[in-house]
Amino acid sequence: MLDLSRLSPAQRQVALAPAGPLLVVAGPGSGKTTALTGRIAVLVATHGGDGVLALTFTAAAARELRQRLGRILGHAGHRVDVATFHSFGLRIARRWSAALDLGAGPIAVYGAADARRLLDEAARRTGWDGNRSPDAGLAARVERLRLATPRFDRVGSPEGSGVPPPRPDGGQAELAALAVLAGTYERLLRERGAVDFPAMLALPLRLFDCRPDALRLYQDTYRHLLCDEFQDLCPAQYGLLTRLAERHRSLTAVGDPLQTIYGWRGADVRFLLEFRRDFPEAQVLSLDQNFRSTRRIVAFANALGAPLGERRDLWTENPAGPAVALHVAADGRAEAAFIAGEIARLLDTGAITTPDEAAILYRTNRQAHDLTLALRARGIPYHVVGAGDLFARREVRAAVAYLRLAHNPADTAALVRVLNAPPRGLAGLARHIERFGATVEHLPALAGAHAPEAVPAAASLAALIHSLHARSRAAPPAGPGELLDEALERSGYRAWLTGLRDGEARQEHLTTLRALAQSGGDLESWLTELQLGEAGDAPAEGTDGTRGVVLTTVHAAKGKEWRVVFVAGVEDGLLPHARALLESSDPAGLLGAPGAPGAGLEEELRVAYVAVTRPRDRLYLTCCRARRHGEALEARRPSRFLRHVPPGLLRRAA
């Protein structure tokens, strides 16, 4: 018998709603994960767990959901399939690789760096823009085009694809050239038996279009579908959910239109707002009670988000708490000094007991510099989210590449990464390998043709890779930790690192990687988790070895909470971002979302709303009268979004 007594009345209503289409509009801090877990538990108890699929956006969200289901359902919770969209798509691609023309061998997974190098090769082959290397903006446009699909004419195509319409000044030709570039890139991916993150979303849809039997199989396997953060769906993700739900029409969508902050990568809030177009029989429920924040913070958030008008106000039974504070500093350094000083005061007075109970949120990463200097000056430990990422380090990428080759010797991108790790005279072969998709089998012959003096090194590297691959397939197979040790020792990479000036620090990174590899299972599973961001990372440590104040962008803070939150740079030009201010004066909508002038400003307001709903106890907003931009000191003014807030909800902090 399920115990739902700990759920609020609204959460219990979600859990007990009959099977079928259900839209849950859930505000921040409203316990949506609790409600979603309860609904899954009821579905399992009523219909069995084998037919339930819950899709999330992040590995952390999937882990938390699995853990909660295990606590509620025990062993039955393990029967529920909880996955991220990307891991689910990769699973389908691997099972149906032949039908998707990906070859018969293991599929190589390309992360952002590998994908960018392959896009460079595609640009060279197509003569894109005078053979200039593609920048991040072009990579994002190619990704959005690849995820576009004509199935969304209900929302409007190409608008529904997230791809901006062609500009009147020859934009059609540019869009056609972009399509050629995207097509060449995808062909190169297929030739290498590889998938990248967009392909993990697009390939299942292509499979379902060409193999109706595969679609029917998955529809009957997953009779009940659930999706969190529904407002962040891109067209491909929405297409996957709706195709799977067509047959049994049991889809639970949980989301909040006020927290749509990923429009720049193709998310479309209209899938949530227009849910009943595709599911007219859907029941719609709301979770409006906020269990996280104080009454004053909730009131402030309601006032800030009011112009969006997309959801009922939140309410809470929590204490009133301190007023939301606004500090206007002279410049960025003074702003950082105020924040550091206030955190020190909160620690001294016991308002917070450890530094990691506080977070500093900002719109752009460049704001972190002054903040870290101020925290250092105060001796306050901190952690910058996204800085010093273990898996972004060159030595860690090289070590992981050896493991990728142990699993799949045909992984071209991994081969390029280990060619000269350590230096062995093979760097000149990288261009030939990237151009022709050569594998380890071709390595000695390539060296003979282009670098004869390096033939012995090429043969030695090929032998090492074959040995690692054989050990990964032995009975019993070697685990990722053992293979990593062998690769680092036999290649000479560990010894080479020791001789570098920063060799000790690099060795520490490899030691951390070794600990993560040792905790994994088989090589393929561990690599999959790693490449999808699901293998975990070293704990986020502060500057003195203790857990510190968290510094992060607002986007990276979504879904998290802290006792105290400082939102830095609440001023025009940062929040809202200068780019959105430019878009708001674009009457044709060519720079913002198609056909929606000012949509960029709306999304910036949602970013601000996400930021102010992260704290439990205290919220501080800071801005500057002037801020340095390059060599110039530019005048600034408080964010226009604060005009929406009644003066009584803000107090000035000196």
Number of domains: 4
User: What low-confidence regions span 5 or more consecutive residues with pLDDT below 50?
Assistant: 149-169, 535-541, 586-597
Choose one word for the global shape.
Answer: globular
Strand order of the largest sheet: 11-12-10-13-14-9-17
Tell me the helix content. Answer: 40-55%
Largest sheet: 7 strands, parallel
Average pLDDT taken over every residue: 88
CATH architectural grouping of the largest domain: 3-Layer(aba) Sandwich
CATH class category label of the largest domain: Alpha Beta
Task: Please report the number of helical segments.
Answer: 27
Q: What fraction strand?
A: 5-15%
Query: By helix and strand content, what is the structural category?
Result: alpha/beta
Radius of gyration, in Å, reads 26 Å
Say which CATH homologous superfamily of the largest domain is assigned.
P-loop containing nucleotide triphosphate hydrolases
What is the CATH topology assignment of the largest domain?
Rossmann fold
Distance N to C terminus: 56 Å
- The tally of strands reads 17
Write a brief structural summary:
The chain has about 650 residues and is of the alpha/beta class. About 45% of the residues lie in helices and about 10% in strands.
